[in-house]
Specification:
It contains 21 helices and no strands. It is an all-alpha fold. It has two domains: about 80 residues, no CATH class; about 280 residues, Sodium:dicarboxylate symporter (Proton glutamate symport protein, Orthogonal Bundle), CATH 1.10.3860. The N and C termini lie far apart (about 50 Å).
Amino acid sequence: MKISNLGIIAVIVISFSALLTFLDHYELLHVPVLVLMFSRWLAIGGLFLYGFKRKSLTTCILISMAVGAEIGHDFPELGIKLQVLSKVFLKMIKTIIAPLLFATLVFGIAGHSDLKQVGRMGWKSIIYFEVVTTIALFIGLAAINISKAGMGIEMPKGAHEELEKVPPQTFNDIILHIFPENIAKSIAEGQVLQIVVFSIIFGIALAMVREDKRQPVLRATESLSEVMFKFTNIIMYFAPIGVGAAIAYTVGHMGLGILVNLFQLLLTLYVALLVFLLGVLLPIALFVGVPLKKFLQAIAEPVSIAFATTSSEAALPRAMEAMERIGVPRKIVAFVMPTGYSFNLDGTTLYLSLAAIFVAQAAGMPMTFGQQLLIVFTLMLTSKGVAGVPRASLVILLGTAASFGMPVWPIFIILGIDELMDMARTSVNVIGNCLATVVIAKWEGEFYPPTELSAPDENRIHNLEDQTKH
């Protein structure tokens, strides 16, 4: 059977299941629970058949998300137990990060011996990151002031300020956090920015030594980077299981009903992120001439992994590979993308400005525009200072609350749906960093899409053939 026919069958079955669920929910038709469950699993069966014929990893991941949601809904206890599979996937992905970044950065810097380009990419990346993340902060600020999602929320009875107090991040703390004191410790703690700094300095040092001393290390780093990309391919075979398990756990311990609770705050974030994607990232992509269709196809897989696992790190190796595949040189990918994971978290910075004002609204603390601007500029600094910290946005939010004398109890309310919010902001982080690599590559004049590479080669071949004929 053709793939298109299977797709049509899958759409029909899913539509039938959705119709039954709609009629039962609004009491237009009484549908037995077992019939509803059977219709949903029948729809998933149709997706399975389509995915089996399609044989695409991205398709398999998306289907596994639907399966995970259904398992978490129908069998919540099983869904919660499946969390171990998602943790296995994340652990394996984290083993890739440090050797991949080290090998690609060192080879990219020392292999080309162009230290001036490293400096150029550095200041260009920082300028781009700061402009885009500042826009994201202001979009979040505007969104929460328009929706006023925190207004009218009362402090829950029995709420206690039990969250750990987090001291505000000082400027010195932020600077010191960038530099590693022990590279083994940085690797163990997943401090991406510290690994990047070490790798850059190592690459510069390698570029400065004699050729006979440099070549053995260069060959070793080139081989290591190739091996780690193959390692990534092997781990990705487990991705559908890990991603499905992550969704099953989320739905299993939170329930689908959580989507109704705090819907206004969720909607505010999702709309704000959509405005940022369409109003900021899309115009940037069009302005610099990004091949949109190929770009979207390339990022589909890493973004779906980021959405389900709420981990940017989980998507990093695949995102780097995808950007290299569409024409960004490895040396630029290896420099810009990991740096962006500390300085260009577009989704997280937008969320932080939105969440900080939400806390103030919920606590009944009216703030002038000037006070809100002060919070935004504080977040511009602190959001760069906790790269690699689990639930980093929570740490920053607690620190901001402490700095401005806000109560902690509204953060408990946000925690209830934090995973659902984290899915969206992590996906936007990945999209933003992928786009940043293409922008810097275009800025450097080193973006080589496969189609653009092949055309001149074909012309040269035809010219040579014509010359030989004459």
